[in-house]
TrEMBL record:
It comes from Liquorilactobacillus satsumensis DSM 16230 = JCM 12392. GO terms for molecular function: carbon-nitrogen ligase activity, with glutamine as amido-N-donor. This is GatB Yqey domain-containing protein. InterPro entries: Asn/Gln_tRNA_amidoTrase-B-like, GatB_Yqey_C_2, YqeY/Aim41, YqeY/Aim41_N. It comes from the Bacteria.
Amino acid sequence: MSLLDSLNNDLKTAMKAHDKETLSTVRMLKAAVMNEQIKTGQPLTSDEEISVLSRELKQRKDSLAEFSKAQRADLVSGLEKEIKVVERYLPQQLSEAEVHEIVAETIKQVNASSKADFGKVMGAVMPKVKGRADGKLVNAAVKSLLG
């Protein structure tokens, strides 16, 4: 089942259950996927779908951090629910230990030895963990293993 089919089914389910928060989030996700399809002019591949979902998740996490900093508990709770809905459509996220393992393996593969090789390592790691790990987590792992 494609992502759009899954979103449509979940949209119907949320409508029938009168689940407004899930409904609005699924609508936003569907709109983001449809907009990306229109932009590319063709159906999206699964990697492109994951990229769209990852971008949506990152936007919500960034907003969550800002709202938390501003002590807006009313907005934080809504965003946390949205994040849970978005995460349902993404692949299983890697643990911190798994990310460290992938980064260590990649450092050996590209023969990185110092912080000067940071960009080379990040460029090699990110395609491996695309959609399965947060970029901030990968960045921290690379810095700690190179430093």
